[in-house]
Specification:
The complex is a heterodimer of chains A (about 260) and B (about 550). By secondary structure, chain A is of the alpha/beta class. Chain A folds into two domains: about 70 residues, 2-Layer Sandwich (Defensin A-like); about 160 residues, Rossmann fold (3-Layer(aba) Sandwich). Chain A has eight helices and ten strands. By secondary structure, chain B is α/β, with parallel strands linked by helices. Chain B has a domain of about 90 residues. Chain B contains 19 helices and eleven strands. The chains are: A alpha/beta (about 260), B alpha/beta (about 550). Chains A and B meet through strand 2 and helix 3 of A and helix 7, helix 10, helix 12 and helix 16 of B.
């Protein structure tokens, strides 16, 4: 079968372009509401559009199901995919990889540094309760998690990381003023660089809603996770970086001269 | 003082047949007896200790409210000052009311402010001073409990006036915007759409705060902070809607985490109707110190008992971390332990809303029959408890169509096993916070099942040796094995406490939680010989109607 590069949605016939959508409009149920739904469907590119279901949701809203044909074409050659540079693993696979790769439990130390008392982020990643239906890192049998909680000073964090022989250090910054999260992060990464030889330093991971993924190098850490990150993503990253293919990349980077932060 | 309203809570029709499974009564008795044996040492431990939160709850019952300009509650400031001077082991009450009797301040809040600036020195009174301080403390805290009693009578009056939920199961819906002023219209709408119970989800992480935030709050993370003012605002709004709808709409919040005794007290004072309150959740899922949790648990349950509040336990959480088939018996064990702890704390059967959940992987063959077996087992073991039936979350994939079907089966299992409280499942679970249409569709799903099959349980009698009955017996047998395993942890152990040792060894939810680890341990103190707490005394008082049970 030849590779198609232009496709359309498929209802029951190739190229029929059929789609189904549902939505709610803040319009009381009635003829006018149905007309409003048809208008929206047309503007969305459904032509013809069939409002097959309309139901009042309380006195002020109406819910619709609409079927219709779209004329849009999908060009598969123009599809861009941003690939995660590490594979997303299930807890089972994470445990297996750690067991095989490290032959001991991976030690993860985490906390909120500076004056930030908001452990929401670090707890969502570390506590067994987890986040978005995913269990936190405590749930992973092969990870030993040390959650230091809130308001941990950088020296405390470094000392505890050394004491626990941490493979990775997770730092969260949620509430911040005047770029304190940036300064705290740089102070933290500098302290770890000072305390460890470059090839022995634990993997440094930073998280919080005010960070962007692209900030990792500037802050001197191995990875930044932004809002919406789930525990499985963090666990998968750690496995990749500590026992997986990411290890080589990291060692290469460590060998390069470090910019001073 | 007496608690005149005890025992006059809403009665549930227990007459409907709840004996669907041929369980051996001796086995059931054995399960309860093992749970009692496992729980007793914990109760002893709880009675020997106090916590910062129990003491702060006592101050709250005595009427201390508000916070300093940094937002630190006065109960925290006062407690910290007392603790700094005389320690925690005597309780906060004697030093505080001794200072008031001596005239260091005219009232509690002035005393707290003075204590915060260091201008009051506390001592543990002796002799006549002790007698005077004790009487004053008892009067003040007794006043708070009278308020709680008044709230309970008010609830009963309002249910008589407006009517109760029209049917079982009660329909339980969640709101969670983070902003109490957004929550209110959403909750009122949900009630108009058919919810009998509104739960306001708490902000993530509140369970780990060692203080209760103050005032109306408009910012939260995936939920709204539990504060006294938020409780008051929401209850008032739901009263308005209850009057409009002609049925009393219940309000639920969370008495869990480091401040559970205080939140229980606030719930009693603001007439909340149900509270999430699990005996081990904080230990296992929040890494809160086990001793702290059990001490706080007992006090908070005593307050709930007094306030006529229905507790909801959190067994569903076990199934979100472990496989719902393999771990089915851990739910039963937890229910038995929760029942023991609840009963010991004075809660009556109608107040013990034990939890369980529909979380078996739908790809497993016979999953629905197993769900029914588990649900019927809970129903039959706890015939008078208002069981809370929790919808699928783990196997909701984002395929909303499949999710809608799964929720339909969840609802069907719920009505076939006569569940009392049905947390409405959303097809967009794990996708978005529920949209207006999601909630409406979810309620249509519930209504269809309840109208179409609501009395199917009358015709439904699983074959005595069929798959369902056998599965139920198997789960009960595994629960008994696990309880025996817990009790056997006693041998040669450090604490001589089987349940604590079992928790430390990771018997539950795969989490190892040693008795000397976890958060909040520094807020625990062993009571001194002259420890006094008027709340504990008033709540612990012998209840004439207790005694012979089962």
């Amino acid at each position: 079968m030849s590779e198609k590069t232009i496709v359309r949605p498929y209802g029951d016939t190739t190229g029929d372009g059929m789609v189904q959508v549902s939505f709610t409009l803040p319009v009381p149920y009635g003829k006018r509401a149905e007309g409003a739904a048809a208008q929206l469907a047309h503007k969305m590119g459904l032509d013809p559009a069939m409002v097959v279901h309309a139901k009042s949701m309380g006195p002020d809203f109406t819910f619709f199901v609409v079927y219709g044909q779209v004329s849009h074409l999908v060009d598969l050659t123009a599809v861009e995919v941003v690939e995660r540079d590490y594979p997303l693993l299930s807890p089972k696979d994470v445990n297996l990889a750690v067991r095989k790769g490290l032959r001991r439990r991976m030690v993860v130390v985490g906390g909120c540094i500076g004056t930030d008392a908001h452990t929401v982020g670090i707890d969502a990643i570390l506590n067994i309760k987890g986040f978005a239906g995913e269990k936190g890192l405590e749930y992973y049998r092969e990870l030993r998690v040390v959650n230091l909680g809130a308001q941990v000073s950088v020296p405390q964090l470094v000392a505890r990381a050394q004491e626990e022989r941490a493979d990775a250090v997770l730092v969260s910054q949620v509430v911040t003023q005047r770029e304190a999260h940036i300064l705290n992060a740089k102070e933290m990464s500098a302290a770890f660089r000072e305390a460890y030889p470059s090839d022995r330093r634990p993997v440094l991971v930073l998280g919080g809603p005010r960070f962007h993924e692209s900030m990792a190098d500037g802050l001197g850490v191995d990875r930044v996770f932004a809002r919406g990150t789930t525990p499985a993503e963090v666990a998968s990253f750690l496995v990749d970086t500590i026992v997986g293919p990411g290890r080589a990349r990291r060692i290469d980077r460590a060998a390069q001269p470090q910019e001073s932060a | 003082m007496t608690a005149p309203t005890r025992g006059r809570g809403p009665r549930h029709p227990v007459a409907r047949s709840r004996q669907k499974l041929d369980l051996d009564p001796a086995t059931v008795r054995r399960a309860r007896s093992l749970a009692r044996q496992a729980g007793r040492p914990i109760v002893r431990l709880a009675k020997q200790h106090t916590t910062v939160s129990v003491e702060r709850a006592t101050l709250r019952l005595a009427g201390l409210q508000g916070a300093d300009p940094d937002g630190i509650p006065w109960v925290n400031r006062l407690l910290d000052a007392v603790r700094g001077d005389v320690g925690l082991e005597n309780g906060v009450s004697l030093p505080v009311w001794d200072a008031l009797v001596r005239g260091d301040a005219g009232d509690l809040s002035t005393l707290a402010q003075k204590a915060a600036t260091g201008s009051v020195r506390f001592r543990v009174p002796e002799g006549r001073d002790l007698v005077r301080a004790r009487a004053a403390a008892r009067r003040a805290v007794g006043g708070g409990l009278k308020q709680v009693d008044g709230r309970r009578r008010e609830r009963e009056r309002l249910i008589r006036r407006w009517g109760d939920a029209p049917r079982k199961p009660w329909i339980y819906l969640i709101v969670a915007t983070g902003d109490i002023y957004e929550d209110i219209p959403q909750a009122q709408n949900a009630a108009r759409e058919g919810a009998d119970i509104i739960a306001v989800i708490r902000s993530t992480g509140q369970s780990l705060l060692d203080y209760v935030p103050e005032g109306a709050t408009r910012e939260g993370f995936a939920g709204t902070y539990a504060t006294q003012e938020n409780f008051r605002l929401m209850r008032a709004a739901l009263d308005e809607t209850s009057a409009e709808l002609g049925r009393y709409v219940r309000l639920t919040n969370y008495a869990s985490g480091l401040c559970m005794p205080e939140i229980a007290a606030l719930a009693g004072l603001q007439r909340l109707d149900m509270m999430l309150n699990d005996s081990m959740y904080g230990i296992l899922f929040r890494d809160i110190n086990p001793v702290r949790t059990f001490v706080d648990q007992r006090f908070s349950r005593q307050v709930h008992a007094r306030a006529g509040i229905i507790i909801n336990t959190g067994e569903d959480n076990y199934l979100t971390t472990a496989d719902a088939v393999e771990a089915a018996h851990t739910v039963t064990v937890s229910q038995l332990l929760n029942e023991f702890f609840a009963t010991e704390a004075g809660l009556e059967d109608w107040q013990i809303g034990l939890g369980h959940a529909f979380e078996i992987d739908p790809a497993v063959p016979e999953s629905f029959r197993m769900e029914l077996a588990h649900a019927l087992l809970a129903r039959q073991l706890f015939p008078k408890a208002p069981l809370k039936w929790m919808p699928p979350t783990r196997h909701m994939t984002g395929d909303v169509f499949r999710g809608y079907l799964l929720d339909g089966f969840f609802n069907l299992a719920g009505v076939m096993s006569s569940q009392d409280i049905l947390l409405v499942g959303m097809m967009t679970e794990a996708v978005v916070t529920p949209w207006l249409s999601d909630r409406d569709l979810a309620l249509q799903n519930v209504r269809y099942v309840v109208d179409a099959a609501g009395r199917l349980h009358e015709d439904f009698h699983p074959a005595p040796d069929g798959f369902i009955a056998q599965r139920a017996r198997q789960v009960l047998a595994e629960a008994i094995d696990l309880l025996e395993d817990i009790l056997s942890h006693k041998g040669g152990s450090r604490s001589g406490n089987g349940l604590l040792e079992a928790i430390a060894d990771g018997t539950f939810g795969l989490m190892r939680r040693p008795a000397d680890g976890g958060r909040g341990l520094d807020g625990v103190a062993r009571k001194a010989a002259d420890y006094y707490n008027p709340a504990a005394e008033l709540l612990d008082g012998p209840d004439p109607r207790k005694g012979a049970r089962r």
